[in-house]
Amino acid sequence: MRKRRSYFKVPNALIFDTTLSFATRRVGMIFFAYCNALGGCRKSYEAIAALAGCSVATAVKAVWELSEAGYLTVKHTKYHSGKLGRTVYGKNTYTVDLALLKKGYTILDRAVLEQELTDSALIVLCAIIVCAGNSSRAFPSISALQKKTGAARSTVCAGLRLLKALKTLLVQLCIKKNQEHSRNSYHICGVAEGNYAAASCDQHIAASDACQAPIEGFSLMGVVRFLANKVKTQITGVLNYLLKERSYRLT
Asked: Name one Pfam family in it (predicted).
């Protein structure tokens, strides 16, 4: 039986908040992925660390940073332990700020959190998804990804190599007629439902400096047909030229 896909919304402000580390941004995505309709989430630090693929200490630090940045509020709970005979701390109750979604958000498949992605590769993937918008193809430059994610150029390239190896992205080189390299073409392989960013979120990633207009109906078969038609046209031109030369000599 095929597993049903499950999606969640993550605010673009969290994705492109360069004041936070990549691990903290990933933990923030975990809260938005597993919160209820009111933004509430109740999980232990061990569960958060397991979902984010980090240590408990990293999870504790990330929760504190997210709370300081205003992405969530933390409410500590206590209960009386009959076994210990004293009051102990229980699971914290977290409430994420759902108002951030009104400023622009991206819909992601929860399966992307289960992939063996590094924290930086996950943020790079989210940036490409935002560039693609409602399409499945994007054209961001390396420098644009570097600027918007806050990562070094080598970190962005390493993330792209990992995404390509996991077949999360189909990367194609774009070469102009003068043989100069242009921005790569990234085809997203089913990890996002689409990006619904409000106009006020253009400050995070502008289409003018990060991506070009997507080409509708892109597919590998379409590229093959285009190349086949181009070769066919060239062959037809050569044959017509030879026929004209032959008829000229006969006359």
From this structure: HTH_36
pLDDT tens-digit series, residues 71-86? 999 988 777 777 777 7
Closest CA to 93 of 108, 75, 107: 75
Whole-number Å distance between alpha carbons of 22 and 155: 11
> d(Cα 227, Cα 39) in Å, to the nearest integer?
50
- What kind and span of H or E run contains 223? helix 220-250
Q: What is the pTM of this model?
A: 0.70
Q: Which contacts qualify for 99-102: CB closer than 8 Å, 24 or more apart?
A: 100/11, 100/13, 100/14, 100/71, 101/9, 101/11, 102/198
Candidate CATH numbers 1.10.1750.10, 2.60.120.10, 1.10.10.10, 3.40.50.620; the one for domain 7-210: 1.10.10.10
Distance of CA 81 to the CA centre of its chain: 43
